[in-house]
Amino acid sequence: DLVFFADRGSDAGGGAVQRHVGIVEGVTDGDAGILISTVEGNIANRVCRRVHRFEDPRITGFGLFATESEP
User: Fold this and answer.
1) CA 7 to CA 5: how far, in whole Å?
2) Beta strands 33-43 and 16-30, pairing class
3) pTM of the model
4) CB 16 within 8 A of CB 5
5) DSSP-H helix ranges across 1-71
6) Distance between CA 53 and CA 38 in Å, rounded?
7) In principle, which of 5, 14, 28, 70 could form an S-S bond with 20, CB 3.0–4.6 Å?
């Protein structure tokens, strides 16, 4: 799965600017709330693992990788 992030700013029309994508490694639901574990690139010129709260306002959506068997 993928998670999409926007910058803190917005475009000229007032919408969020899509700037980043991460690969979702896992999701946990515990005392700290829902946490999304990701692998992301372009973080200080490195690939790294990060954890985000589901409520993070920079998260704009989620997606799935398409496979050849899917239309």
Assistant:
1) 7
2) antiparallel
3) 0.75
4) no
5) none
6) 11
7) 5
